[in-house]
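Annotators were shown the component list below and the corresponding predicted structure, then asked to write short factual statements about the assembly.
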Amino acid sequence: MSVGSFRFLEDVALADCALEVEGDDVNDLFETAARALAAVMVDPETVPRARTREVRLEASALDLLLYDWLSELIFLKDRDETLFVDARVTVGGDGPFTLAAEARGDVIDRVHMALRADAKAVTFYRFSLERADVGWSARVVIDI
Amino acid sequence: MQVKPAGECVWEIPPTEKAGMRVPARIFASQELLATMDQGVFDQVTNVACLPGIVGAALCMPDGHWGYGFPIGGVAAFRADEGVISPGGIGFDINCGMRLIRTSLREDEVRPRLVELVDALFKAVPSGVGAKGFVRLDQESLRQLMREGARWCVRRGFGWPEDVDRVEGRGALPGADPDHVSERATARGLDQLGTLGAGNHYLEVQVVPPNGVHDAKVAKALGVEGPGQVFIMLHCGSRGFGHQIATDYVRAFDQVMKHHGIRVRDRELSCAPFRSPEGQAYFGAMTAAANMAFANRQVITHRVREVLTDVFRRDACDLGLELVYDVCHNTAKLEHHRVDGRPAELVVHRKGATRAFGPGSSDVPIAYREVGQPVIIGGSMETGSALLVGTTEAMAASFGSTAHGAGRTMSRHEAKRRVPADKLLRSMAARGIVVRAASRAGVAEEAGVAYKDLDGVVDVLARTALSRRVASFVPIGSVKG
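Structure shown to annotators:
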């Protein structure tokens, strides 16, 4: 379970949703980013961790791997009607970078889940992933 | 940054203001609207002015605000042979657009059944996260739909033959190429035909208010008879199918630009030469998504007709449920305009901007050719919407383009803080507006207070002659995502 933190940035994306994510390490950052994305779409407390799904990705750069990881979770939301609210992630390699993840969540239940916004896409607007003084931080704007 | 007055409600940023600007940036706004525009508008419209092949000026409409790459309200035209195409100039919700359906019903006939009507629309047109439509598509059907758009729906019985004559591009833009659509986009969109989406998308029951007809002759030509008449307005797009196509190509173009020696000021302005294999692939896929959006609004129209027939126990023809028009506000299209007095083939990007062709244009339906192309501008869920027509002046001033909505002025979180959902719903109910929404939080984010004054936007369009005001509508029922 990730221990990182995230917050919504209000002065970055007027019509959409900007997130600032911090993690102890890269794996924690990716896990926390998944939790943050989920919180855009649903109250995570209302989602049972009833289903798991393995995800494997590869990208030429670490920030593109984060872009692909969050894009994959949005894709699965539509294709499989499933919201994944937390994940265990292992990032490896030094270019190309790889991701192996086990995401947990459940099929969308419009009665029992407190649904929020429908995430359309991850954007490159002010998109960043960088090593912080302690751990890692990222900024992501989600189009909703 | 120097923003100089350049005419009534026109402001210009000269090319000397930023290194790399190839043309000026021009903003259509009143002094008041200009003052409320965020810094992103000025930064982004001048970034757009730096893109290869741009002609005339990089434009921003009066509802403009910060976007990705292009501002929302952005219009830019690039020479087809020398210019670029940019997903950031179109948006993630490809062919998000507006559709207006007239009825012969009057408000006093609808009021007694309004709750029943809105409940039935909410049930028939799925909205919100994870919504699935009633049309089951297989891979081959979806490929046909990508090429045929609304025409595919009418062939399948989801609409009337005359509907397609009243859709921009007659319901299917040319150039769609399913071979350039990823399997992921197909998988994401297969079940979403006939769904509304979320965010600022809506299906509204509206009425023409007292003093809501501004040009009686043109209004009559568009099927607007007068105050008290009920209309249905849709605002939605290409759903996950279009979102995935945009995601695929934004990601791909991020890497493609270096092969073409293109450098941009903002990663969201990633682009490719229009005539390059990558540019043509995106144009083919993006157009496929645009046609899916036309189909989506057509299927929803079919559902709307079914619901009204059921609720009022009258035939859809008898209820006068004719399409007024359907217009895109997130596209890039190949169009012919005059540049420096000469005809030119241009890739016109409109992102949160509406095509607004004037009277006499062969792209305007014959029924409307004398008055100009209908322009549908959606306001907030509380305040209402507007119907206008395109003008000859817009052809010269903005490549035949105009605004698309009221434009946000407040973040979604701020809107929720200012007006909690319960309070907003109670306030709307007190004003006679029935709301059904998939997400209560989503409703609060779309409160009227989060948007610019629509009248202010429409007033600028009239003063700059980008469009001509025809009629206003106010909501009495709203289905939200």
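Statements collected:
1. Chain B has a mean pLDDT of 95.
2. Chain B touches chain A through 49 residues (CB under 8 Å).
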